[in-house]
Write a structure and sequence with these properties.
2 copies of one chain form a homodimer. Chain A is of the alpha/beta class and 185 residues long. Chain A has 2 domains: 101 residues, Rossmann fold (3-Layer(aba) Sandwich); 55 residues, Arc Repressor Mutant, subunit A (Orthogonal Bundle). In chain A, 53% of the residues lie in helices and 8% in strands. Chain B binds a DNA duplex (30 and 30 nucleotides) through helix 6 and helix 8.
Chain lengths: 185, 185
DNA sequence: AGGCCGCTCCCTCTTTCGGGGGATGCCGCC
DNA sequence: GGCGGCATCCCCCGAAAGAGGGAGCGGCCT
C-alpha cells in the first residue's frame, strides 16, 4: 500500500524489535511504522532504543487497540504518531505525511481516552505487581507470600488501586487495568 | 496484496456485516475474508447470514487474537478458515488457495487452543450473564437484583463457572473468560 | 416414560475482602 | 533541610465470597 504512493517508498521490514533497530541503523528511514506487540523486543523498547541512537527518528505506532496506558508509554518513549490498525488506509498515508512534516498525530479515539485519564494518578510499580498477581487468582495472602511482604501491605496497595482506577472491587479493577493496557496477561 | 497475486482478484470490500452481506449477494466471490470485530453487525452474524443464503460460501476469518471461544463460534457459524492478522502474507495466500480447493484451514495456535478445550463444558447462557455482570464489578447480591433471581442462584452459577473455567476465584474466572473470548467487555 | 441438563433455591461455616482509621522509614526534589 | 510520594505495617469490623452439602422443576431427547 505504501509502495503504491507516488511520494513514498518501503525501504525495510522487520519482525521484531531487534530487527527493527538494526534495520533502522541500515536505512535510517524518514518514517518508521511500529507495531507494539512483537516477540523478543517489544515496540515500546524498540522506540526507546531507536530514539536513543537517533533522536530525530519519526516513529508512528500502528497497532490494534491496547488501551490508553499503552499509548501513553509509546508517546513517552518518543512516538510521533499513534494509529489503530482498524483505521482506513487514507488516514495512514495522511498521518505519514503529517508526521513527515513534523507534526504529531494521535488517533482521535486514543486521544480522547488519554485526555480522560490525564488527571488520574498512575499506578505505582508495586501496585501493578500486586494487581497482576491478583489477576491470575491470587488471594491477598498469596500475593503477600509471593512478593515477600505482609498481607496488610497488599491490602493497602489494593485499596490504592481501587481508588486510582475507580473500580468497584478487585475483579473490576483487573478488567479496567486490562482494558486500559495497564497490565498484560 | 491479494490483487498482486496472479490467480486472485479483489472484487469487493465492506466495512461492516451488512455491507458484507449485500456485497456478497452482488459479487458471490469464491472466497470471503471476514473480520469478526465490525460495527453494526459482527463477523459471526455476517457469516451466519451469508451461509444461510449461500450454503456453499467459503469464508475465512481474519482477525486479531480473540480466544478459542470466538474461533469456535466462527467455525460453528460455517467459517472454513481462521487466521490471525499477525500471520505472514504467505500464509494468507496459501490459506486462500487451500480453502478454495475445498479444505479447511485453522491457524495452528488457534487449533491447539481449541483442542485444549474440546473436553471442557462450555458455559451456559446464564453463567455467562452472571460472569459478565461480575466482570464490571457487581457483587453477587447486585447481580441477583439485576437478573431478578436470588443471590443463592448467583452463587450456584459462579460455583459452576469457577469449576468449568478452572479458575481460582471470580477475578481469575473473568480474566480467563476474557482471554478465551467467552465474554466481551 | 425415564433420564439428563439447565435453572432455580436453600442451609452452614470459614475465609477473604474492603472500608475506616493511623503510623513509620526512605528517597528524591526543591 | 524540609516536604511529598512511595512502600511498608498495624488495628477494627461488617459484608462478601466460596466450599460444602441438598433439592425441586421444566424441557428435551431418546
Amino acid at each position: 500500500m505504501i509502495a503504491g504512493q507516488a511520494d513514498m517508498a518501503l525501504v525495510a521490514e522487520a519482525e521484531n524489535g531487534e530487527q527493527a533497530l538494526s534495520a533502522f541503523r541500515a536505512h535510517q528511514p524518514d518514517i518508521t511504522l511500529m507495531d507494539v506487540r512483537m516477540p523478543t523486543m517489544g515496540g515500546i523498547d524498540a522506540i526507546t532504543a531507536i530514539r536513543a541512537e537517533f533522536p530525530a527518528a519519526r516513529i508512528i505506532v500502528l497497532t490494534t487497540y491496547e488501551g490508553d496506558a499503552q499509548a501513553l508509554r509509546a508517546i513517552k518513549a518518543g512516538a510521533a504518531g499513534y494509529l489503530l490498525k482498524s483505521m482506513l488506509r487514507k488516514e495512514l498515508v495522511e498521518t505519514i505525511r503529517s508526521v513527515h512534516a513534523g507534526r504529531r498525530r494521535i488517533a482521535a479515539d486514543i486521544a480522547s481516552e488519554l485526555a480522560e485519564h490525564v488527571a488520574d494518578d498512575e499506578l505505582t510499580v508495586r501496585e501493578r505487581d500486586v494487581l497482576a498477581l491478583v489477576a491470575v487468582g491470587n488471594a491477598n495472602k498469596e500475593v503477600a507470600a509471593r512478593m515477600g511482604i505482609s498481607e496488610e501491605t497488599v491490602k493497602t496497595h489494593m485499596k490504592n488501586v481501587l481508588t486510582k482506577l475507580g473500580a468497584r472491587d478487585r475483579t473490576h479493577a483487573v478488567v479496567v487495568a486490562l482494558k486500559r493496557g495497564i497490565i498484560d496477561i
